[in-house]
Amino acid sequence: MSASYTVKDIQVLKGLEAVRKRPGMYIGGTGSDGLHQLVWEILDNAVDEALNGYCTRIELTIRADGSISVDDNGRGIPVEKHPATGKNTVETILCNLHAGGKFDDYAYKVAGGLHGVGAAVVNALSEELVVAVMRGGRVYSQTFSRGIPSSKLKNLGEAERSGTKVTFRPDPEIFPDISFSKDKIRERLETKAFLIAGLEIVMKDESDDSLETFVYPGGITDFLTKLAGQAPMIDAQPFHFRCENGLRLELAMAWTEETSGRILSFVNSIPTPAGGTHDAAFRSGITKAVRTYIEKRNGLPKGIKSVSAEDVREGLVAVISVYLQGNLEFQGQTKERLNSREASQVEPLVRNAFETWLHQNPTQAGAIMSRVVLAAQARTASRAARDEVTRKAATRRLTLPGKLADCSISSRDGSELFIVEGDSAGGSSKQARDRRFQAILPLRGKILNVEQASADKLKANKEIQSLVQSLGTGMGKQFDYSRLRYGKIIINTDADVDGHHIATLLLTFFYRFLPELIHRGHLYLAVPPLYRLSIGSGKKARTQYVFSDEEKNRALKGLNGKEVDIQRFKGLGEMDAQTLKSTTMDPATRRMLKVGIENEATADDVFDTLMGKDVRKRFTFIKTHAREVRDLDI
Ligand code: 1YM
Questions:
Q1: Fold of the 220-387 domain
Q2: Which of 74, 245, 366, 563 has the smallest set of CB atoms within 10 Å of its CB?
């Protein structure tokens, strides 16, 4: 240790140690999402520089050695000695957990979630990190390893431009699998380019020498066009609104002829797929503006008492982006829902701006009002029809399909429905289940490909009927969440190509016709093992189940020299009840994936690709993605 080793140095080491000991606290985990979080943190620092108006171009390179570089043409991180630490500012930013907040002189931090400590967290979790700063006509560089400086900040000579370039290689001691997903990165970069109109973002991949550029002069209006996709917009000119005083807010929206709608929300340029306070305030603002407009104009047609928030939302596509100061508060299991109360300011802003726009654009306002009133009429009519049906059905009680082996408890909480493939798997699942709370529904063969079938054909399909009856909710317009009969719906298909196909068909069906069950977190995929390894013999014999070929190879490497018998499970029907129970059904020992929609904007395309008519497109997709279903993103 050098003589200049101080209390501050000890604090720094303790901070780094905390990050390395509990990476999950800072980046959510050490799986693929955590690994990519490192990229987002560095990217967000460059994005901040763009949001502050100093940077026009960001280049991200996926490098052949497993590292990532992010290079921006902003001002460059300051290099002078920092008063709080006595070290240069670059080192201060990269080695101090409390950086962001403490350095009040700097405007620093708008984007991202970690508030200025992002770079230090990435540094702590990287085997090596190199930063180059171009500033004041000079190039400076410093290197770090696992958060500790491995060189001084060196002045390398003249610089032609200004900017900051950070290259980091994640630490294999922390991350078991360091493979970056180009798709995930591309999607993130494209989204940032949409959110900051005119910002040029380049993605380079050294492994195939490719280069892609994202730049959208129209910003979120371009984003909206992409989101609406093929669906025709009823109002040719989308509503666009930007506000910079008080709250920074930008909004683009339009209605389409389709019944489904999509609202994408962002806070500080980070996606909030589960919405939250800003999104709720936006919805409420729009609903109030529409209601007031209707009141001031013609009023509602006969038979319609009011328009609901759902009526207003039908067919609505929107992109809303807000910037909040201070610590963001997130909620929910995956911390994807904004919970900051500050965001309620969105409501009056949106309400006033939209109402004014409606009055200034009477033709478009008329088209929108017809659209909303139509939705209200459809809802009223379908409620009347449903009441009629329910009254008739009340005497018959609930009709359940004959194939369903129901569980004994009748509450939704704690009950589970397993959807299995074929009668043979159905038989073994029935033996393996805990009948008190686990129900089994065997489906025969492949359900219809919903992406290609008409709605009528679909409703006539027996397998779909049994499924919907078992769930109790009805589907499409008749969907009624309050009638859902099970808390968890678990798709359990074989771990082979056919099984994957059936699972995908079912996922598509849920996504298209029962999306609320996905949004509310009821849908799961069981993960049955692919192999049983029987290790050793006699008294010391033991069994291990593995879930993929890679996992098998890894396990076999570890078992070098031992006697191992490998059994491949061809289907769930082949497993004995005890094995099926412990590997796939018993909540204490099974593996499951919760199905969520990671990106609403691309989910539609993904299903179109998977299940649409273009077989070749589908084939390439399945081939390239089949191996990464680990954290399922649809
Ligand atoms: C590839 C990552 O970090 N760019 C970047 C970071 C900073 C600045 C510019 C910057 C900010 C400010 C003033 C300010 C940062 N500076 C700091 C701190 N790209 C990347 N580009 N001058 C330059 O916020 O006032 C932290 S990050 F705190 F040192 F100012």
A1: Ribosomal Protein S5; domain 2 (3.30.230)
A2: 245
- Predicted confidence at residue 450, as pLDDT, reads 64
Residue 387 falls in the annotated catalytic set: no
Nearest CA to ligand 1 atom 17: 77
Pocket of ligand 1 (CB under 6 A): 42, 45-46, 49, 70, 72, 74-75, 77-78, 89, 93, 103, 106-108, 164, 166
The helix (run of H) or strand (run of E) holding residue 518 is: helix 515-519
Tokens matching residue 564: 């191992």
Mean pLDDT in residue range 263-290: 94
Tell how far the Cα of 329 is from the centroid of ligand 1, in angstroms: 23
For 181-187, which contacts have Cβ atoms below 8 Å and span 24 or more sequence positions?
Answer: 181/32, 181/36, 181/628, 182/62, 184/36, 185/36, 185/39, 185/60, 185/62, 186/212, 187/599, 187/602
β partners of residue 163? 134
Distance (Å, rounded) from C-alpha 90 to C-alpha 151? 12
| Alpha helices by DSSP H, 201-276 | 220-228
Residue 632 in this model has a pLDDT that exceeds 70: no
| CATH class belonging to 17-214 | alpha beta
Q: Which residue owns the Cα nearest ligand 1 atom 4?
A: 46
Element (H, E) at 421: strand 416-421
Domain ranges of the chain: 17-214, 220-387, 416-528+594-628
If you average pLDDT over residues 455-462, what whole number do you get?
75
> If pLDDT is split at 50, 70 and 90, which confidence band does 78 have?
very high
Helix (H, G, I), strand (E, B) or coil at 297: coil
pTM of the model: 0.65
Quote the ligand 1 centre to 45 CA distance (angstroms): 7
* Close Cβ partners of 630 (under 8 Å, ≥ 6 residues apart): 31, 32
Residue among 292, 305, 296, 310 nearest 371 (CA):
310
* Range in 89-103, 184-198, 263-277, 418-432 with the lowest mean pLDDT: 89-103
Candidate list 496, 549, 605, 631, residue with the active-site label: 496
Interval between CA 390 and ligand 1 midpoint (Å)? 62
pLDDT (tens digit, 9 = 90+) per residue, 317-370?
999 999 988 777 888 766 678 998 889 999 999 999 999 999 999 888 988 998
Q: Give the integer Cα–Cα distance in Å for 383 and 263.
A: 25
563 flagged as catalytic: no
User: Using one digit for the tens of pLDDT, what is the confidence trace for 523-537?
Assistant: 988 888 888 999 988
Contacts of 167 (CB under 8 A, 6+ apart): 63, 67, 68, 69, 129, 130, 131
| Sign of the dihedral defined by the CA atoms of residues 516, 520, 522, 526, in that order | positive
How far is 371 from 256, CA to CA, in rounded Å?
9
What is the assigned CATH class of domain 416-528+594-628? Answer: alpha beta
- Give yes or no: 244 in active site: no
- 421 given a catalytic annotation: yes
Matching residue, tokens 């920074």: 248
Cβ atoms of 410 and 436 within 8 Å: the answer is no
Distance of CA 263 from the midpoint of ligand 1 (Å) = 32
